Amino acid sequence: xxLLEVRDLTVTFGEGARAVEAVKGVSFDLERGETLAIVxxxxxxxxxxxxxxxxxxxxxQARHGAASRIRFDGxxxxxASHAVLQKIRGGRIAMVFQEPMTSLNPLxxxxxxxxxxxxxxxxxxxxxxxxxxxxxxxxxGLADAAERLDAYPHQLSGGQRQRVMIAMALATEPDILIADxxxxxxxxxxxxxxLKLLKELQARFGMAMLLITHDLGIVRNMARRVxxxxxxxxVEEGAMxxxxxxPQHPYTRRLLAAEPKGGALSAPTDAAEVMRGENVxxxxxxxxxxxxxxxxxxxxxxGVSLAVREGQTVGVVxxxxxxxTTLxxxxxxxxxxxxxxxxxxxxxxxxxxxxxxxxxxxxQIVFQDPYGSLSPRLSIMGIVxxxxxxxxxxxSGAERxxxxxxxxxxxxxxxxxxxxxxxxxSGGQRQRxxxxxxxxLKPRFVVLxxxxxxxxxxxxxxxxxxxxxxxxxxxxxYLFISHDLKVVRALADQVIVMRDGxxxxxxxxxxIFDRPQMEYTKALMAAALRLEAxxxxxxxx
Amino acid sequence: xxxxxxxxxxxxxxxxxxxxxxxxxxxFRANRRGFWSLWIFLALFLVxxxxxxxxxxxxxxxxxxxxxxxxxFADYPESTFGGFLPRTDYRDPNIAEEIRSKGWMVWPxxxxxxxxxxxxxxxxxxxxxxxxxxxGTDDQxxxxxxxxxxxxxxxxxxxxxxxxxxxxxxxxxxxxxxxFGGLVDLLFQRFIEVWSGLPVLYLLIxxxxxxxxxxxxxxxxxxxxxxxxxxxVVRAEFLRARNFDYVRAARxxxxxxxxxxxxxxxxNAMVATLTFMPFILNGSITTLTSLDFLGFGLPPxxxxxxELLSQGKANLQAPWLGLTAFATLALMLxxxxxxxEAVRDAFDPRRNAR
Lengths: 541, 354
Hints:
The complex is a heterodimer.
Chain A: E1 4-13, E2 20-30, E3 35-39, H1 46-53, E4 62-64, E5 69-72, E6 75-76, H2 82-88, E7 93-96, H3 100-103, H4 110-122, H5 126-139, H6 145-148, H7 158-170, E8 176-180, H8 188-205, E9 208-213, H9 216-222, E10 225-230, E11 233-239, H10 240-245, H11 250-257, E12 273-288, E13 293-309, E14 313-317, H12 324-331, E15 338-343, E16 346-347, H13 353-360, E17 363-366, H14 380-391, H15 397-410, H16 427-439, E18 445-449, H17 457-474, E19 477-482, H18 485-491, E20 494-499, E21 502-508, H19 509-514, H20 519-530
Parallel strand pairs in A: 3-9, 3-10, 7-8, 8-9, 14-19, 14-20, 17-18, 18-19
Antiparallel strand pairs in A: 1-2, 1-4, 1-5, 5-6, 10-11, 12-13, 12-15, 15-16, 20-21
Helix pairs in contact in A: 4-5, 5-7, 7-8, 8-20, 14-15, 14-16, 15-16, 16-17
Chain B: E1 11-12, E2 15-16, H1 19-30, H2 32-49, H3 51-54, E3 61-64, E4 67-69, H4 93-102, E5 103-106, H5 144-180, H6 182-195, H7 200-210, H8 215-226, H9 228-241, H10 245-252, H11 257-294, H12 305-314, H13 319-347, H14 349-352
Antiparallel strand pairs in B: 1-2, 3-4, 3-5
């Protein structure tokens, strides 16, 4: 008998006409000590499946079907009493969530939170609990564990917080660890470290692991068996090698084929320079005391120089906090900065808002989050046409409508959708709308600030293809900001690697990816492309 | 990656209703208590707006000597009906007798205005409820129902005007503070702290000793202090929304600050504002009532609920005064609170999400 048996699991949210069936008849087994990965895109029902195991869904809005069975070690979990569930939750089945900042209580120290788990499930108090907490934190590789006991979650980095979460999960030596996108919120180098840690711990304790992820790279690295889910159903199940090498279901094939492919368009070296930044600096003052004296600076961007030519893509890569986005905003003069910035040969770093206005038409930006970058109360027509109104590009309503429809058609959307509202569109469609908003003004320079990070894998590839297509058609110059090196490789001609506001390495894309010179770049590449953790001290923990 | 449009969007007064608004309307309608409260309140308000046709000391229509007269709309000298005064008192038994002998008159439902003194009382004022004065009279012999209708009207009108005016000012002030932030915000916040420390009641008492406070005086003075109610929420919404990506995107398009504030950020703040409004309206009505009760409100003789309450306090032997004022206030404020609750729930995304 398997340790965990899930049979015919259905989950329905809501009542009557508004009812949504999130999981439709999912069955799987999890044996002791094995790793099962559930992989799927957003909305596939993978997280809901994981939460059902611990009965953590918002009941009674969420309901299970009559035939749904979840058996853990001989105990039925569906409809089990609170007392039974409480023993199992955190005791025998532990869970690690995606976002460590919100999963930890900000008002309690790390030591206290782990101590609570120990008290509840093991009855440990005082010195024994203290010793065990230190032991656990050391186990998950938190440096200076004894001193970190009194740290609050906000005093730790994202990776450290996730380590604390794992320590909490391990505190009771569970039989099953459910990891719901455990590394999505952290940087690639940290991700590699955490995955390595999870693997080691699993082998050491003989835990079974249910890994929920959208990232096929992680699956390949971690799991022995894979469950592919889409639209609430399991479409394929099997051993990892088999699923990856010989996928049966068309959806799995599509998912596997969805990794961004293709190379950058190479611009001729004599192409006109569209955007040039010299020694760009964005320093945020740190003020202290009553008189608000400036005692130091946060150097978000610290002396970066770059040039983007017509038809060329310059990729800016780096981990969170490296100043990539700030650099993009500074070049567009949306962020106060120092240093010379020239747009098509004309210095713009001293221009006022009014003088910049006509230039805004030619330099545009596309943001990361397609949900946040479209005003929810304007129709698509209103959103895309806004820039036309500002720059007086359309003489009449009919002409404006025609231009908007042309832009929508160009990004692959049905022009008839112009009167709908953003919430009616999927993430990928929204990102297309955001691109149409930039494109309708016929810009020459576009800053793409992580335009694919919030999207599912298959949609990412489509957007990358669209961007490349638009670039070749309009000879656009892109500044492509991303932490996702696979996407950057598929699009960028030149690459700049940033860390702590400074350029670590810059050069042609092929050279940076294939022959990185600097230690940091090497570590970044290993972590991002091969999920390898590099222990040479160049990467933070 | 194309989607076909099939859904038809409903419109209201030629403007498209966004699906979000539709959902909110449906959610508001689903709250039966709030929905019915709104209709009852609107009906009462509508009746009180036409108070002159419901309770008046002049008839609608007079037929006298073959000619038709509309005393509700026009003043006629008494000479028209064979008297000698410059204005006709239709309740004068002589005039009434004269008109009835040569024609007829149609009286409103309640033949008293708010300031009509009933000289036909059989008992000393305040008179208890009777067939003639349904809720009795106050201590000056004026009909309580008539005063109630006019008092309700002025309370609601005062409340509405004050609410709308202070919301407009409050939203504008909060928007400017939140959107620009920094020094503007800092100075404005300190100013509000000082300003909100001023004692409103003493200012009103001082005002009452200089001018005779009327509707507009009271409104302006209350407005000086009540606009601060919304500044906090609106400012918070603007502080939050100014860093949204779509606001940054609009800035990257070259859109000006005013347009961004009105088109992109304000709709976010409207949710909080609309949720607050019924409660501010309640507060405004209560303020006017308490000022009238204390005697610092509307000029003597005006119909007002607060004045009725203070009469009830002064004439404990006539419980119909206090009870009437209490019941009216309780009903009006409860209705508004119910409406407010329904509005708040309709705007609550957590209730709407599912």
